[in-house]
Amino acid sequence: MSPEQLQAESFSTYSPAARAFAVQHLALLRRLPLSICPSFLVQISTLDTCFPTERSFLQHQCAALEAIQRGELDALLAPMRSITLPPEMSAMNWVKAPDLFVERLSEVLWASGQINGFHQASRALFAAIPDPADGRERLLLITLGRGADASRGSLLKKLARQGLRLEALQADTAAQEMMSTLRQRSERTPEDYGHWYVDGGERWAAPVQQSASLIQTGYNDLAPLRDHVLERMQTFLQQKGGAESMRTSLASIGPPAFAGGRISSDPVLQRFYTELFTKGSGTQVFSTSFVQWSGRELARRAKPSTLLLRYVPRQRNRGLNDMIAKQSGDTLEPEGSLIDAEMGAFYNWIEMNRISTPGKLTTLAWAEDSQRAVLIGPGTRPNTLSHQRVTVLEALAFARGA
Amino acid sequence: MNFSRFTTSRELAASRRDFLRSAIGMLSATSARSGLALPLASIRPAEKTIVVTFGGGARDEETFAEEGQENIPNLLNTLLPQGTFFPQVRNAGILGHYVATASIVTGVYERFNNFVAQPPPNPTLFEYFRRELRRPLTDAWVIAPSNGFQKIGCSSNSGFGARFGAGVILPKRLLSAARASMPNQTDQLQYLLQDNYEMPEYEVRSSSQEREMHLDTLESTLRLSVDDFVKRARTLDSADELSLFIMRRLMDQHAPSLMMLTLHDMDVAHSGAYSLYIDAIRRADRLCAELWQAVQSHPEYKNRTTVYFMPDFGRDADDDPAGNGFQHHRTGSDMARTTWLLALGPHVRQNAVVERPIESIDLVPTIGKHLGFDAKTPGRYIEELR
Predict the structure, then answer these.
(1) Of A17, A228, A293, B194, which sits most exposed with the smallest number of CB within 10 A?
(2) What is residue B32's predicted lDDT score, i.e. its pLDDT?
């Protein structure tokens, strides 16, 4: 089947909302080459469990492509159309299972040496779509380094190059101020899935109720999901399957039945939390990887206004099979975890910066229990230093240029 | 979707060059012609070759860029001044470790499934070497870290194949078998046995094309009892150290003329733990120096061995939205495709940088021309290493 042959009935297995979306954009989908049409269907088919921002962004992308003049769009799609695929791929049921098609597509593109051409073509296509207006003021709060020595001069050096290094942050009230800031922002600008707190261990005592606007979760909260995935991985290892098929197998795991009772009743969150472990790498065994990946995926998908990420020490590295089997995993590694978290924090800043309008992102990364932090915002200058004693609230006001 | 500007391979190379010049005052190859230690004619007959790859890839940021220098003191301060450095080596093939390593040893960008252990379809460096130079089977070896590399010693090419292949030693598989043969052992050596996060197990495609050394020939091949092997393993910190131990044992017992060692610890990066990735790079740096020192202090190898150090490829850039930074090598971007080569040996110019780009598949024809056999590959001979 080719995209030109798509009919409204083709989407009969989709949910009503997904089907309606596909039918609404049927003319566009018919014009897309086979090398990219299923990628759109991956998103459309999971529309029910997408974050609102993902739905609106997909709508924006489709509308923008539909608005491009026919000849111009044909020119943009021409490189995609020139991608050569083996005949059996068009015989796949890529409408019903677009994710399997996309996985196979990736293999084919690499094996046939077309991967770079494909990336170039997709970059050109999406570059033709203007970014949607988003003037939100965003805030990224990060804590890291619990139990580690945070006194070295190079602490958070990648972030420090971007902003102001604070050497006298008031530590005893910092956690409380961060949490109250998160709560106040969620109350001031309530938006579904707009404000998040993700903890790498046991969450700080939360002074507020979970709400549609303020989502709070942690590594320990999601332990049942993680255990579920680890069990699947262990079974897979015992069967001696290959790495690629293990990834495919994990990606096919949907939210388990118990998720509704023990994790969340919200199908959007059930899917998001499940995919942190089934599509992330290392998230199942290292809490630092979990926090970094959570922050990355939230920035990419939910595009939150406020994001509080707390890195805590991960377990000591051991044999992968031991870690998957959860054998003797009580020993923590604070110093290595701090290094992991420093890089993770840098990546979290990159991701949040990518989705923010210039001058609209404020970032504070604090070495927990110390007076040391890095502050980045429209009011700070790159690679600067301050020994002035400040509270979190004062620092944030300064970074915003208030 | 947003796409940020990507660093080009040319920019990567320039950054390495600038840093090297400022750090150790290296000369460009075009101006440095005086580093030849011995005339070629006097060293050709008994030359030995060792290829060391980093299966896991290492980025500039953690190695040759200014902020990475603290991780590679031995490469920078000890080895670079003694060799010729190529800062711009491009891997245009599939960025998976097995298939990329196979491409390096065949000189052809192989296209098979990275996750299925199978002999490469094109003849390997080892087969060219043994067939064309009529070398015995103990004269070419591969020491590789992972399950899946057992097929890399020879190709499925009908004109070559197992009868001309290299012996393959997978130290982790040997150790695992050794422990299984000693049921009363209760020590924890799992840390030496782990593969990286992405490939805990490989699917093995059955084939007669295999030259893997198994436990039953450990003693006859390496003059090492199973007990002593396990005892020695207990003193080591990582799988890469175990691999180097095996290589030194081979040097002592057979003094092979052609060996390849793949270091793999740094691929722990796939777990997302940056500290473990950095630890592995530092360990690889130390092991490279130990290897060179072993070569230069060994009577069979001293002053007649060329060593090539080359990561199989890089890793994804921090700001590439399609990837997750150092963790993977999935984007196919320039950062992921660009790596480097450092060559040391009696015929290699010292303290030199070659700025022109080369490709990872150029290594086989270069070694072939140097040793005296013709490899039929699309790779090109690296003139600066003649």
Answers:
(1) A17
(2) 41
Instruction: Find the range with the poorest average confidence among A151-155, A234-238, B54-58, B243-247.
Output: A234-238
The pLDDT value recorded for residue B196 is 52
State how far the Cα of B179 lies from the Cα of B17, in Å rounded to an integer: 47
Residue A146 tokens read as: 């619990």
Tell me, yes or no, if A241 comes closer than 8 A to chain B by beta carbon. Answer: yes
Which chain A residues contact residue B112 at CB under 8 A?
Answer: 111
H runs (alpha helix) in A13-97: 16-24, 26-31, 37-45, 52-67, 70-81, 87-90
Q: Choosing among B147, B173, B202, B327, which should be mutated to test the A contact, i.e. which has the most A CBs within 10 A? A: B327
From CA A86, how far away is CA A105, in angstroms rounded?
Answer: 10
Using the Cβ of A335 and the Cβ atoms of chain B, whether some distance falls under 8 Å is answered with: yes
Here the CATH number for the domain that contains residue B349 is 3.40.720.10
| Residue B360 placed within a domain | no
Closest CB from A123, A281, A347 relative to B3? A123
Other C-beta atoms within 10 Å of A158: how many? 18
Q: How far apart are the C-alpha atoms of A23 and B322, rounded to whole Å?
A: 29
CB contact under 8 A, B198 and A243: yes
- The pLDDT tens digits of the residues spanning B258-304 come to 999 999 999 899 999 999 999 999 999 999 999 999 999 999 999 99
Confidence of residue B180 (pLDDT cuts 50, 70, 90): confident
Closest chain B residue to A295 measured between Cα atoms?
B324
Contact partners, residue B355, CB within 8 Å, separation at least 6: B13, B17, B28, B29, B87, B88
Torsion of CA A318, A323, A329, A333, to 10 degrees: 50
Lowest mean pLDDT among A76-90, A128-142, B173-187: B173-187
The pLDDT, as a whole number, for residue B33 is 40
Instruction: Please state the domain count of chain B.
Output: 1
Taking residues A287-308, report their average pLDDT: 98
Assigned domain for B22 exists: yes
Q: How many CA atoms lie within 13 A of A58 on its CB side?
A: 24
As given in the structure block, the two tokens for residue B358 are 């080369």
Q: Any chain A CB within 8 A of the CB of B198? A: yes
Residues within 8 A of A (CB atoms), B 73-92 only: 92
Q: Does A110 touch chain B (CB under 8 A)?
A: yes
- Whether the CA torsion B204, B210, B212, B215 is positive or negative: it is positive
Interchain CB contact of A170 with B (< 8 Å): no
pLDDT reported for residue B202: 46
Please judge whether A126 and B318 are an interchain contact, meaning their C-beta atoms are less than 8 angstroms apart. Answer: no
Scanning every residue of chain A, which has its alpha carbon at the shortest distance from the alpha carbon of B111?
Answer: A111
| For residue B40, pLDDT beyond 60 | no
- Let me know: does A289 contact A300? Beta carbons within 8 Å: no
Q: What ipTM was predicted for this assembly?
A: 0.94
The answer to whether B191 contacts A318, with C-beta atoms less than 8 Å apart, is yes
Do the Cβ atoms of A260 and A224 come closer than 8 Å?
no
Q: Look at residue B330 in the predicted model and tell me its pLDDT.
A: 87
| Residue where the block lists tokens 């309530």 | A190
pLDDT value at residue A243: 64
The encoded tokens of residue B225 equal 């009892």
Is residue B140 packed enough to be buried (19+ CB in 10 Å), middle (13-18) or exposed (0-12)?
A: buried
Residue B55 included in any domain: yes
Residue B202: closest CA among chain A residues belongs to which residue?
A: A242
Q: Quick one: pLDDT at residue A208?
A: 64
With a CB-CB cutoff of 8 Å, which residues 226-265 of chain B face chain A? none
Percentage with pLDDT > 70 across chain B: 80
Is residue B103 included in any domain, yes or no?
yes
| Closest residue in chain A to residue B5, using alpha carbons only | A123
- What's this model's pTM, rounded to 2 decimal places? 0.91
Q: How many CB atoms lie within 10 A of CB A84?
A: 9
Q: First-to-last CA distance in chain A? A: 58
Q: What range defines the domain where residue B168 resides?
A: 9-28+45-355
